[in-house]
Structure formats: C-alpha cells, structure tokens
C-alpha cells in the first residue's frame, strides 16, 4: 500500500490512509493471533466496557456516527459477540456481551495493551502526540464544522482585505 506522492495529499486523504494502515495492521495481528475479529468492533467493545449499553450511549462515547455504530452492532450480533435485550420502554434495546463476546474480550485485552504501546512508540517516533492532536481537531470541528470553515475561507479568498480579523 503506497500513497501517490506526485502532489501533496489533502487532509482527508491522509486521515483515511493512516486509518487504513492502522486497520490493516490490526487485522493482520488479529489473524496472526487466531482471532476472528474486525478492528471496527473495538470502539463498540470499549464503550460497552465503559458501561454504555445503548446505541445512543455508544455514539456519544465513541464519536462514531449512529449509522456506523448501528451497522457495527448488527455485525457483532450476527457474529455472536453481542446480544440485544429490551429495556422495557419499547423504544430502545440494551446491548450485552455474549459468552462468546466475553471470551473474545479476554483474548483481546493483551492485544489492546500492545496496541497502546505501539501507538505510544509511533507518537515518540514522529515527535507528536497524534491522539491528542486528533482529539483537539475533533473538538474544534465539533465547535465549528468544516463546512463553516470552508465557507469562511472562500469568502476571505474573494476579498481578503474586507474580512481580516
């Protein structure tokens, strides 16, 4: 997997590429460990471990979209990792780990410790706290969306002297 270097890549390209490199590496490691597991399951499991039991709670905890969480939860239910239970209000369902999910979790814990060690080593190698930078970028984009930032940049390009702060 190589990136086209004829022109500088944009932010979206770099984010997707880095994400892909991380996911491919994690998937390979899961296979090497003999685990039938998808990297996209990790934020869901981490949210459940933090006590989140509904899709809405997982969305808030993980910063993933509701669509992404719902799709991933459906895969995890189909794979026998999660089970849905009614909450009694008729609208929501609660999620819980199945026995298979609990056994998988026990196998994953050492891998997750190694993952965080690998991320820390990567951050040391590049000389930047990547997770912290990405979290700050996410916070800033939640405060002021990228569409608003693009609109502002376009206006400033049209008449830079009129819009100086």
From TrEMBL:
Family matches, as InterPro entries: HTH_MarR-typ, WH-like_DNA-bd_sf, WH_DNA-bd_sf
One function term, GO molecular function aspect: DNA-binding transcription factor activity
Keywords, ordered alphabetically: Plasmid
Protein name from the UniProt record: Transcriptional regulator, MarR family
Species of the source: Paracoccus denitrificans (strain Pd 1222)
Membrane as UniProt keyword: no
Span of domain HTH marR-type: 28-126
Source superkingdom: Bacteria
SMART domains documented for this protein: HTH_MARR
Pfam (any one): MarR_2
């Amino acid at each position: 997997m190589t990136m086209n270097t004829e022109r500088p890549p944009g932010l979206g390209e770099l984010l997707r590429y880095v994400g892909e490199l991380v996911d491919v590496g994690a998937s390979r490691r899961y296979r090497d460990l003999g685990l039938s597991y998808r990297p996209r399951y990790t934020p869901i499991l981490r949210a459940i471990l933090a006590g989140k039991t509904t899709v809405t709670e997982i969305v808030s905890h993980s910063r993933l979209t509701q669509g992404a969480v719902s799709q991933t939860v459906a895969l995890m239910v189909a794979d026998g990792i999660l089970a849905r239970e009614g909450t009694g209000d008729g609208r929501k369902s609660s999620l819980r780990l199945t026995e298979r999910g609990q056994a998988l979790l026990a196998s994953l814990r050492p891998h997750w410790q190694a993952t965080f060690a690998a991320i820390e080593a990567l951050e040391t190698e590049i000389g930047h706290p990547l997770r912290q930078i990405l979290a700050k970028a996410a916070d800033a984009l939640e405060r002021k969306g990228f569409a608003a930032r693009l609109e502002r940049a376009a206006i400033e390009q049209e008449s830079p002297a009129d819009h100086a702060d």
